[in-house]
Specification:
With 132 residues, the protein is of the alpha+beta class. The chain has one domain. The protein contains five helices and six strands, in the order H-H-H-E-H-E-E-H-E-E-E. A six-stranded antiparallel β-sheet has the order 1-6-5-4-2-3, sandwiched between helices. The two termini are 24 Å apart.
Length: 132
């Protein structure tokens, strides 16, 4: 499995996972999937970690992700065509995503750790796969 497939398997609701994977894998249909990220409700709530209000900046979110083992580079699935499908340094990715109102999924550790940025500031979550 590639980074995107591992991310989807770990963090997306089972009912939508396969369809989303099909859309993302098809270059002609990928935009259909990424355009839904601003108002995305397909994340599995078991793995969402709320980010405290006072830690909503790119720098603070990077610190939180690093404390959970995030490496220097991450992979993005994004509503922004400039970012979608790219691998970037974590700090740079967060600077370009946080507060921009563009739905983006960031995979830090495939299938284990990521970040979601939705359209609004209340739509920010650390995605962490942990034992339940």
């Amino acid at each position: 499995m590639n980074d995107e497939e591992l991310f989807l398997t770990a963090f997306i609701n089972k009912a939508r996972r396969e369809r989303l994977a099909e859309l993302l894998a098809n270059p002609k249909r990928r935009r259909q999937a990424t355009s839904a990220l601003a108002h995305f409700h397909e994340l599995d709530p078991r793995w969402l970690v709320e980010i405290p209000h006072h830690q909503q900046s790119a720098t603070s979110i990077e610190r939180l992700l690093r404390s959970k083992g995030a490496p220097d580079t991450c992979h993005l699935i994004s509503e922004s065509s400039d970012l979608d499908g790219r691998s970037l340094p974590l700090a740079s990715a967060l600077e370009r995503v946080v507060g921009q109102g563009m739905g983006t999924l960031i995979s830090c550790i495939p299938g284990k750790l990521g970040f979601f940025e939705g359209e609004g500031p209340s739509d920010r979550y650390i995605l962490e796969r942990r034992a339940i």
